[in-house]
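SAMPLE LOG
Freezer: B-3
Tube label: C17
Construct: single chain, 236 aa
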Amino acid sequence: MTIEFIPPGEDWFPNPAGAGADGLLAFGGDLAPGRLLRAYSQGIFPWYGPGDPILWWSPDPRCVLAPEALHVPRSLARTLRRRTYAVTIDRAFARVIRACARTPRPDAQGTWLMPEMIEAYVRLHALGAAHSAEAWATDGSLAGGVYGVALGRMFFGESMFHTAPDASKAAFVHLARLLARWGYGLIDCQQTTRHMLRFGATEMPRARFLAHLTHLRTARPAPDAWTPPRDFDPLG
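STRUCTURE (predicted):
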């Protein structure tokens, strides 16, 4: 396996099939909107820490969730029925990604969301390519959220956070059910976690994932995508 260097200004990526099992494919390049969208269209995403160059990944296997296959655990369903949180779409993208950056990760020191990454995804959001779901507590505070990138009928989940029980899960369930309504074929969860497996996610070989992506990245979602209906019920 060779990890390739992408010189500044060159807009290309090596074939993701050449990445090792851990998924590390290349380093270098930049986080310009065009490059980020090209990366996602090829099943590649950036992930790096302080002091590292930009690292580009395409893991094998890939953790994915078909939106229509979402499983909602009973305890979470009770929280949703009680309407503990009001969930919105794209109301506070920048706040969600910055909260994700502040959230400690049990398997990492510091944050993988560098300031330049935050700025890059905020730019994508302004272009209509990145989206968030927000869970608001009854006092009006932002209690949790999730964000990611949408391309065709693929949604690439990036990160989530919560400051109150089940808040990020409530946001994710709303988002997944809306993605199903809008015709999205897959949610890319990137790395396999018990958290996502409980929602019904499965592992998919990279070659199969890339084949699905080739079809879904150019498919059009429903015309009302990213305009959720009023009083949407994720359990209905």
